[in-house]
Amino acid sequence: TSKVNRKAVRLARLAEQELAEVSTGISSDTGSQFEEEGTMAEDNPPPPPRRTMGDYCRRTDAGQISMGFQPANPVTFDIKNT
């Protein structure tokens, strides 16, 4: 159906965007700036970026998609009937 086709196109587009992000990140690290910094970059790698709402439900592996929203610090609460 058309809904399945649209979903496949959307997932393919997301995968291409993620591959482009990964390839641009790797190429910028191997530039001349990295050579000038020397051992400073090797000792302290930058922390990973904090996840936002847009990062959830994206493709994490080649064949796996993370589904749903999982907050970083979930709050537990009880619902009481009165």
Could you name the key traits of this structure?
single chain; mainly alpha; flat
What is shown here, in short?
The protein has helices at 2-29, 32-37, 40-43. The chain is mostly helical and 82 residues long. It has a domain at 2-47.
Query: What is the overall pLDDT average?
Result: 68
Specify the biggest β-sheet.
none
Strand content: under 5%
Low-confidence stretches: none
How much helix is in the residues? 40-55%
Order of helices and strands: HHH
Envelope shape: flat
Number of helices: 3
Question: Structural class given helices, strands, pairing?
Answer: mainly alpha
Structure explained in plain terms:
With 82 residues, the protein is mainly alpha-helical. The protein has a domain of 46 residues. Helices cover 46% and strands 0% of the residues. The chain is built from 3 helices and no strands. The longest helix is centred in the first third of the chain and has 28 residues. It is flat and about 55 Å long. The termini are far apart.
